[in-house]
Amino acid sequence: MRKRSWMLLTAIVLIWGFNWTVMKTGLNFVSPLNLISQRLLLASIALSPVLILERRKIPRDANTWLKLTLNSILNAVGMASTHIGLLYETSGLSSILTYTQPLFVFCLAALFLGEKVTLLRVSGLTLGFLGVVAIYMERISRITLSSATLFLILGAFLWAVTTIYYKRFLTHVSPEIVNVVQFPVGAAFLITITSILDKLNFSVNIMYIASILYISVLGSAIAFTIWLALIRIEEATIVSTSSLAVPAAALLFGWIFLKEEVGLSLLLGFTLILAGIYFVNKRSK
């Protein structure tokens, strides 16, 4: 990746790493469907100035709008699935299951984007994921095939699908415009679902307000725009595998703010993740 891309990826790792801790905190006050609905709604508001400044970039053809709408719904369902799983799991275990996403992206990118499958990339992806596993080695035995696990894996798969879908069909639309569309569409969809399956609820607790503002503005409006910008200019496999550093950051923040346990396996995990990222980004001779 280019130097600028590395800087943007570092910003994502820090934002999303802490995002797991903040999301877990937010779920202490409202249900997962309420949290994700409000997250997307507030992210839409945060990006509303873009709608005014970049209105000339808004697509006019029906075909693009159809693809944007489908992408928006898939994204909303995937994020909701992740939030539901997070409610019943620790932020650490949730992040490791969510970051099976690069494995899905690797397979889908080879099938639908024609990205190269090389020994270096396979080795790098394997090392990176083993690094995430090593970090959570002491907790792996706690992972069972529960409904929470399935929700988190489904969220990871749908995240991979939307990543490949954007790369394949929507790169002609700027990332900020994609989010300007997908956040309000996703919010409207999930608010409707929440009103049917649950009840709409907003907590006025100061901790919740701070949490929802962080995950909406930084975790969604800013980080997801950077994510799509990276997917647009770099190979999906490289960006997704490099994001494996997020679970390591999530564990670190979980240890600092949620008092979750951290073992010596953290150093081994970091080393494997960095080696994996290096091999995936290294060009084959």
| Helicity range | over 70%
Mean pLDDT: 88
Secondary-structure element series = HHHHHHHHHHHHH
Oligomer description? single chain
What structural class do helix, strand and pairing data support? mainly alpha
Total helical elements = 13
Which stretches of 5+ consecutive residues score pLDDT under 50?
none
CA-CA gap between termini: 17 Å
Radius of gyration: 18 Å
Specify the overall morphology. globular
Detailed description of the structure:
The chain has one domain (3-281). The model has no long low-confidence stretch (mean pLDDT 88). Helix 4 (62-88) crosses helix 9. It contains 13 helices and no strands. Helices cover 78% and strands 0% of the residues. 49% of the residues are buried. The chain starts with a helix and ends with a helix. By secondary structure, the protein is mainly alpha-helical.
Strand and helix map with partners:
Blueprint: H1 3-26, H2 32-46, H3 48-53, H4 62-88, H5 91-98, H6 101-113, H7 119-135, H8 147-169, H9 175-197, H10 206-233, H11 236-242, H12 245-257, H13 265-281
